[in-house]
Amino acid sequence: MKKSVTLFLFFLIGVLLFPLQALAVDFTINETTIDAYLLDDGNVEVTESHTYEFDGEFNGITRSLISKEGTSITDFTAREDGTSLEVELEDETYKVFRSGKDEMVTIELSYLIQDGVEVYEDMAQFYWPFFDTSNESDYENLTVTIHPPEVTSDVIAYGFDEAYKTEKIESDGTVVFKMGLVDSGKKGDIRVGYDHALFSAAPSHDGTIREEMIREEQELADKEAAFLARQETLRNLAPFVTAIFGLLLVLVLFYGWRKGQMTKLETEHQYHAVSIVPKEILSMPATIFYFRNQVADHGDMLTAAMMDLVRKGNIESRKDGTYYLVHENTDLQHEILLIDLLFKKIGESRIFSFDQLEAYTKKTANQETFYKALTEYQRLLKEEINTHQLLNKHKKLRWTIGLTSLLLIPFLILFGVHELYLWLIIDLIIMGGLLLIAIVFQTQTVKGRLIRRQWQQFKEDFNELQSNNWYTLPKDDKERALIFSSGLKDKELQQKNKYFIENSAAGQPDSTTNLLLLLTLSSAANTNFGSATTVAAQSVTSSSSTGTGVGGGGGGSGAF
């Protein structure tokens, strides 16, 4: 019973958190035709035909109709093959109920726009948005037809945005806007003017609109001509802009490659292996962090750090599974922080255990504190790495590249506005590359590359090491080899270390006491620190419609 209740609660939470995904219907509106019949009393009878193709189960379709100021929409009905369908109105969205699965359906909608035609002293106009930017569905093939009350030849007609230059005036005065594909989030108002005498029964407004409509139509044409002229200019300019910034990107990449090659040659010149285990230059946690490109799991780093403190004698492992703080003598800030975290915040009386760690991180109040300490610990590791100047930051070069790349922004905007999408995509890639370089570009110094080279060679050589050669290694080298293998989480290296230590302990238990303690600590710490850091990380990370069409009108289509 409890399990069923739990599953139901998870389902309910999922639906509440992700309602759109839970209720999503997969469909395509293959064809839409809208016929608007203008009546002599100023009202407009509209008939819409929508052909939907559904993939999966569905319950019906939706049609949002947002009326312009001074108008209203009434008498909404829906039919399929002459059969009436149930309709429900929610705010300004009509839900038409027609359930099914994997079907193609054509539904006819009818409604009346009251006072949809505005009559003036010289002309009457039907200025209407059948859809606006709130529309969330694509119309694959949209056609809007405006029918006058009577045959006439006195017609002015044009459209905006998606409807621009899609109109065709028929001989009887009918105007057809064949828009074709209209993407979601687009708008396309239409404006059609007829002789005012055709609407004798409609209320009239003072003033005239013929000159305004002629002027607006011309302005649209002038605007398009100017747009095309700018587009052509930008099309001719785009190759030069792209070539300049593309060349900059290539030069910077070549500079980085050349710098790396020179450093590599110098490193090989200076490299000579004295021992299989490299000499200690950085602390072991910092060495591992640097070798892992300063990206490592918090738990892995804590394991290596605690093992290193045992190696140095700061911490003593006891038989009861606890760890005793022998002394706090260290100049490394990340070791000071770790000692404070483990033995003062989590442990007490200079004693730390993994049971205390589990109890500490179970408390919600401690989880954020623990996570912040881990983040600060990694920052201090980076600080130690920086003091050894292992990386060239190239700050001046990066600032120059970053600021220079921003000069592309105006061109990107212009290319996008003027529909030069190919150049927009190419320059976006170039700008992204330049910005990425500005953010992350750095090269290794000879010292930095030498450290990486030595430890990489250690990985290769240690796997081939024979037992008799391992016995001759100094005690400190053996311990650092084990710590590096644990921090790197390299299973092959870990197994090799385990084999050497356990076999050596069978014959010489006294000489391998500390190594056995480190081996035990490695296993316990990986498990417990891993769980604690995961809990802390999860705790931190968990922690009315208005149309945009003319006159505030608009709408859109959908399904449910």
Tally of contiguous helical segments: 16
The overall average pLDDT, rounded, is 85
Looking at how many chains there are and whether they match, the oligomeric state comes to single chain
Instruction: Note poorly predicted spans.
Output: 1-23
* Percentage of residues assigned to helices: 40-55%
* CA radius of gyration: 37 Å
Span of the ends, CA to CA: 33 Å
Structural class based on helices, strands and sheet pairing: alpha+beta
Shape: elongated
> Major β-sheet, in short?
8 strands, mixed
Instruction: Give a count of the beta strands, DSSP E runs of length 2 or more.
Output: 21
Enumerate the strands of the largest sheet in spatial order, edge to edge or round the barrel.
Answer: 5-4-8-2-1-11-14-13
Measured by DSSP, the beta-strand proportion falls in 15-25%
